[in-house]
Design a protein that fits this description.
By secondary structure, the protein is α/β, with parallel strands linked by helices. The chain is built from nine helices and seven strands. The protein is globular.
């Protein structure tokens, strides 16, 4: 039975990934700041009597936190086969209104949290021919004026993924990244509510406007991303290495 660490697991995409891996019989270490939500998730995973879950509630912005997560995984389950770096939310808004603190906070969790988690878990991934999956975002390939922080952070995480893929060739670790586009999470619901208020339309009309303006076929579901993670980690998925996988409904237009 494999052991996976999933960061940012209390909500949205991270929660869906943890549930999917638990349903496949994995031991899942779920990490985020909200202990109550994590414990509810762990209970849901355990209730299926297939997988197991260990809760680690802490802030990955703190430099010492990633080592504590890996130590908890080793103590509970003996090691780490899989690391899914999903934690990280960056502030949207007009560039001139974004402060140094906003930028530092965006990089602290999504980029440096992922780098430190990877460093802490790598000896175990190397020993067990494991897998690293970074959840980045379409903004890293298709930046926008409202997403200057997120686009920059995601681009850095994609570059980090490519570099670690070369290290993974040497050490026998599979390394890939997934770029979700708009996914039906609490953050997207907030954006759609704001759009509905600005255009004076209902929720359904706001969604149609959003799809037309973003030029995408539909918004994603957290379970869509979880399904891709599961495929990447499957035996056929081992052919993927150093891949930057766009799951964005057609948002990314570049080659």
């Amino acid at each position: 039975m494999k052991t996976a660490i999933v960061t940012g697991a209390s909500r949205g995409i991270g929660r869906a990934i943890a549930l999917r891996l638990g349903a496949q019989g994995m031991k899942v270490v779920v990490c985020a700041r909200d202990r109550e939500l994590l414990e509810a998730l762990a209970e849901e995973i355990g209730a299926r009597e297939i997988g197991e879950a260990e809760v680690v509630a802490l802030d990955l912005r703190l430099p010492e936190s990633p080592v504590l997560v890996v130590e908890a995984a080793v103590k509970a389950f003996g090691g780490v086969d899989i690391l899914v770096n999903n934690a990280g939310a960056t502030k949207r808004g007009d560039f001139e209104a974004l402060t140094d603190a906003d930028w530092m906070d965006g990089y602290a969790l999504k980029l440096f949290g992922a780098v430190r988690m990877t460093r802490a878990a790598w000896p175990y991934l190397k020993a067990w021919a494991g897998s690293l999956v970074n959840i980045a975002g379409s903004g890293g390939r298709t930046p926008g004026a409202e997403f200057t922080i997120g686009g920059s952070v995601n681009a850095a995480l994609l570059s980090f993924t490519k570099a670690m893929a070369d290290v993974g060739l040497r050490d026998g670790v599979q390394v890939n990244a997934i770029n979700p586009g708009p996914v039906r999470t609490a953050r997207l619901k907030t954006r759609l509510a704001k759009l509905a208020a600005e255009r004076e339309v209902d929720a359904a009309a706001a969604l149609e406007i959003f799809l037309q303006e973003e030029k995408i076929v539909r918004v994603g579901e957290p379970e869509d991303i979880a399904a891709m993670v599961a495929f990447v980690l499957s035996e056929p998925g081992r052919l993927l290495h150093g891949s930057l996988i766009d799951m964005d409904g057609g948002l990314t237009k570049t080659m």
